[in-house]
Amino acid sequence: MNDKSVTARDVIGDYLVEQCTVIIDSEAQLRAGEEVVHTTRVAVRRLRSTLRVFAELFDPGEAGRLEEELVWWANLLGEVRDLDILTQRQAALLAEVPPELILGPVASTIQTELAARRKAAVDAMTDTLNSARYRKLVALIHHWRADPPFTYVADSPSDALDPAIKKAKKKARNRLATAVEVRQAGEPSDEMLHRARKASKRYRYAVEAAAPIWGTKADKIVAQRKDLQDLLGNYQDSIVSAAFLRELGARLGSRSGQNGFSYGMLYVREIATGDSLLEDLKPFL
Question: Which residues pair with 7 in a beta bridge?
Answer without folding.
Answer: 157
